[in-house]
Design a protein that fits this description.
This protein is of the alpha+beta class. The protein contains five helices and five strands; from the N terminus they run H-E-E-H-E-H-E-E-H-H. The chain has a five-stranded mixed beta sheet with strand order 2-1-3-4-5. The two termini are 27 Å apart. Bound molecules: tetrahydrodeoxyuridine. Tetrahydrodeoxyuridine binds next to strand 1 and helix 2.
């Protein structure tokens, strides 16, 4: 799947954003290694802290469907009024969730906008010196984490 196609899926997912409190609408499209795309939007809550970001919605949908390996995520966001005009970077919590499942050097984070422009970062660029399972399970093999 092309970067543009993934951005288009994220723009489509953004339409489902439930964000009555912030008015900031985010969409994401996560590509699994198997080639399937999982979309997500942000889902807010009157109590605020249960709010889930678009990126994590996509990840949790995918992992709950049995996916564990991912190659890229496209993210679009912006206010209800402005639309997805500017690039929207993932929050720190979402970067940490990406770090749980993705190769820092190879996983691509595609920031897109409604003009279908995009820029691409690796996870390592956006989350350097990250805390991961190797930090406290140094001798752990990948199959032990299944
Ligand atoms: N938001 C996301 O969905 N993803 C991000 O990476 C940044 C923030 C959402 C959370 C909240 O619903 C709204 O944007 C404003 O913070």
């Amino acid at each position: 799947m092309t970067e543009t196609a993934l951005v288009e899926l994220a723009l489509e997912a953004r339409k489902n954003s439930y964000s009555p409190y912030s008015g900031f609408q985010v969409g994401a499209a996560l590509l699994s290694r198997s080639g399937k795309a999982y979309t997500g939007c942000n889902i807010e809550n009157a109590s605020y802290s249960p709010t889930n970001c678009a990126e994590r919605t996509a990840f949790f949908k995918a992992v709950s469907e049995g996916e564990r390996e991912f190659t890229a995520i496209a993210i679009v966001g912006g206010t209800r009024q402005a639309g997805a005009a500017d690039f929207c970077a993932p929050c720190g919590v979402c970067r940490q969730v990406m770090a749980e499942f993705c190769d820092p050097e190879r996983f691509q984070i595609i920031l897109g906008n409604e003009r279908l422009e995009y820029k691409v970062y690796s996870l390592a660029e956006l989350l350097p010196e990250s805390f991961g399972k190797e930090s406290f399970l140094p001798d752990c093999e990948e199959e032990d984490l299944q």
